[in-house]
Every structure is written in C-alpha cells, then in structure tokens.
Sequence to fold (343 residues):
Amino acid sequence: MPDWMIKSFDYHNASEEEYGALYHFTVAMRKERHPHDPPLGESEFVARIKSIPEAIDMRGVVAITEDGDILGEANSFVMPGDDNPHLMQASIEVHPQQRRRGLGRRLLGFVADEALRRDRTLTMLESFSTAPAGEAFARRIGASLGASSRTNQLVLGEVDRALVQRWLDAAPVEPFDLRFVEDAYPEELLGPMAELFNVVLNDQPREELDMDDVHYSPDLLRYLENMLLSTGGKRWTAIVTERGDGAFVGYSEITWYPSRGHIVHQQGTGVYPSHRGRGIGRWLKAAIIERLLTERPEVQYIRTNNIASNAAMLHINEALGFHTYFTGSIWQVETNALLAYLG
Fold:
C-alpha cells in the first residue's frame, strides 16, 4: 500500500494547513526549475492561488501523506469563452524525491478523467529543460511535441546603452506618440487593447500546436490583469498610437513583483502588420529599457519567453543581449491516448 493518497484540492477555499502544504511543495518544484531564484513568500503564494479566476474552472488534486505532506499535484483548466472547445490545459508535478513510485500515473488518471468530464479531446502539458523528468514523462505517456519555447534573459547591467539610444533616435516619432500606462488598463483602452491582442498575439508562430485563434475580450484582459494586480504585481505597458486619431499601432509590457523586484518579466510585444518594418518594435523595447535604467536601478534581469520559431522577436531580443536561460516544450496528447496508456 502506498503511504499517500489522492485528494481533491480546492484552490479557493483550502484550509491554512492545506495552503501551507501546497506552498512547501511548490517551493521545492520551483527550486528545481529556477534554482537561482528566491522563493515566493507564503502569503503572496496563497494570494495568487486564491486570485485564480473562477471562469477558468481550475480543478486539482494532490498526492498527500497522512501527515499532510504533499508529494505531487495535478490540475486542469480551460480558458473562458468558446475558443478551442477541444482543448484542455493541465499540469502534473511530482516532488523530485518521490518519482518512479507511481504518483505520476495516478495523477495522470485525474487528468484523463477531467478531459472526459469536460468533453475535451486534447490536453496540453509543459516541460522545462531544467527539470528533464517532465519531458521523459510526456514522451512515456504518448504525448507529441506541439511547440518549443525559449526563456531568454538579459542582464540589465550589461545592456548596450548606445544601441538602446540608437533605437530611440531612429524611432518614427513624427507620425506617432508613445505613452506608458501603469498597472490597470484605463477603461477606454480595454477595447483597443483587446483588438490589438487579437491580431498580434494570434499572429505568433504555433508550430505544431493543434489550436485555433484565441479571442481576447475586454473581460478576459481584466481577468488576467486581476491575477497580477490583486496579488501585488506591477505592470508597465508602453503603447504607440497614431498622432492624428489615436489609433493603436503597437504595444510592449513588463510585469514584476516587488518582493522579487530585481527580476522583470517581459510580456507581450506586438505591432499591427500594417506598421511593421518601421522600427516600432525596437522603439517600444528600447523605451522600456531606458525607463527601467532610469527609474528602477535595482532591476538586474529581464526575462522573456518566446516560441522558438518566432524569429522576428528573437532577433530583437538577441540584438539587445538576451541569452537563453532555459528552454521549454509544449506537449499535446489525445484523450484516447491517455486512456490507452492508463489501460
């Protein structure tokens, strides 16, 4: 008999002891994936868990001992709306010291049950080069590689400031304006931001991922924004608009948590296709870096994640001095294949 059992976990209404156990498990998993990063504080972690929007219907289970120690976790969720009705996203993690004991298989059983309950025919999972057991597990269960990603890091103290200034000097400032928005989007910008996201984010490479466009509604942007801001996160969004009518041209944004303020995460950057090839993407990136250097000297690193085949964005990042920090893989597995593996 195993010395653990599978138990459902209520992410919004767990007890203090349950949240504490999940926190200590998550710290161990993050240490494996990001060994050089400081851990999240427990109160911040719990706040982030509780802020998960109800709309994504996140369900989870843990493998837990009689003493209350969590050895593994699995969860599933779907994005709100009618996009990609065949698709479910899931996560399975097992403590490094508890692998090869059957926990992963039992947790996978939960994922398969969730796919059936939600009537989803395809599940997506992620793995990272810093935790190679994830890739081995994905291949073992019959998942196929959907896309490869790269998380790149810039050491801000080593950035070529002369290059940043050249990009700013070359910016097409005459017909455009650049502005910064801090934290929440003003209500009047939600619609234009959603329209921009629907073009530039759906224009990114998907490699072999079996998924269609995602519709970014104003409500979805608010959902995602609340997950960050309600837990103390911060965001700067740089927006370029046409000077005459104020029409959106492009954007770039960064986020960070003050508790780990030396690490900034570069989120999306995109320019409408009709305005590409004019240096606007470089202008947006350079404007953010210049402001960080001026106003936030404590920042040491900027990290960004891109699909490995996104050559245009990788070219800009590499010119700035970003280097690969770790790589990732997005796996996809059909529900029938999960059921066949589990027997």
Observations:
- Residues 4-120 form a domain with the Aminopeptidase fold (CATH 3.40.630.30).
